[in-house]
Model the fold of this input.
Amino acid sequence: MSVLLIEAFYGGSHKQLMDLLQEELKEECVLCTLPAKKWHWKARTAALYFMQTVPASANYRILFASSVLNLAELAALRPDLGKLKKVLYFHENQLAYPVQKCKERDFQYGYNQVLSCLVADTVVFNSAFNMESFLTSIGKFMKLIPDHRPKDLEKIIRPKCQVLYFPVRFPDVSREHDKDPETFFKVLLKLKEQELPFHVSVLGETFTDVPDIFAEAKKALGSSVLHWGYLPSKDDYFQALCMADVVISTAKHEFFGVAMVEAVHCGCYPLCPKALVYPEIFPAEYLYSTPEQLFKRLQNFCKRPDIVRKHLYKGEMAGFSWAALRGKFRSLLAAEPREDL
Done:
């Protein structure tokens, strides 16, 4: 058990990654987790919990954790863990996370991530967008400190950083042709008002309060709803994706987009904002710039569904597969024992 895996928010893509690594490493690893609830409290206090619960072992060589954990705190509270090679994985970053007003941002979350990067030996991001949006925001973020600001943090952290895409375990699927909620639902309701034929599946796990627009839209869309809510069975989830023709993102923040990649693998035609990580993942023809453009694309598809049903995706998904990335993660988690251990 040379690898210690720590996940302070064990749900969604965070859980998927840890499960893949645990399955790959088997007896070579120990996995310590906290449930995917109350994210803000996990970010604030997880280090103290893991200080008390992570078993001591002379066999550890590598600590791998997501950036929800304050790695600096844990390394200080547990000097035995601080000596390990520390790998920090960013599923998302708090410096580029959207907020209503700048003053509403809890400075501590972003600050924790900067501190974690400073104590980590290797910092890994799930996309180039995630990495660059974080690194290039550090300077501006530190200006929120009223005086005696630290300098050159980006220069210190950047050499440790690399991009390693989130590894998606694609299912074996067969597809027969015989996926910001407000924008998403406004466009769908406009299609409904024009009496255009379509069905919608709204899938996914929820970890916090659900916006009111979801309940309102479900009622307004009525018989157009095919599936609504989280499908706990992966088989049912992928079956729903295989039944769909188009997958839509209206996200205002996204650092990779696991669900979009899964849907495209299952045969869906993607429509994504021309922003965030999407231009890095999808060719230009699948991107839109405004809600009006999204509506026009969907309007056309509703009138001529054969356009998407006969379409062959022009991008490449194989590079995001666990099969393609497995060796890179293996290399990341392989290290010679350090002399000071």
